[in-house]
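#structure-requests
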Amino acid sequence: MTKLRSPQAYSVPDGADRQGHSLLPRAHPAWIAAAAVLMMAAGLAHLAIAPLHWGHAPAHGLFFAVSGLAQVMWGVAYWRKPSAALGRAGMILAGGMITLWAITRAFPAPFGDEPGEVEITGLVANGLEGLGLAMLVAVAVSGTASKSQRHAA
């Protein structure tokens, strides 16, 4: 089994601008680690509820299993080698899951007959995704700010 490395243990060449400046600042490795851990935790929550949903709607159970696995895999990849592209993918993944959850509280989900109930597991998963999304936005904004400051100098 591969040992996870700390976000400080590597450079990010694919997250650099044309001049080679990193768009993921090394000053915030805790934000990178937090985003990865929060997304992995949300993924584990989705994996945990997949069997429960499988009983009433196999498509829902499959969706939770696939999305949970995707979140865990994204978290491991971002922890091991964060990049601007992975950060954007994580923002889309987390934001999409939160948006889909909100829509399915107001309207029936595909293969469902009524809007979903607000459950504690959904609130926990969405809270984790929301915090992870906030960390990813913080990393992206700080990278953009530091890039603008370099070009102004």
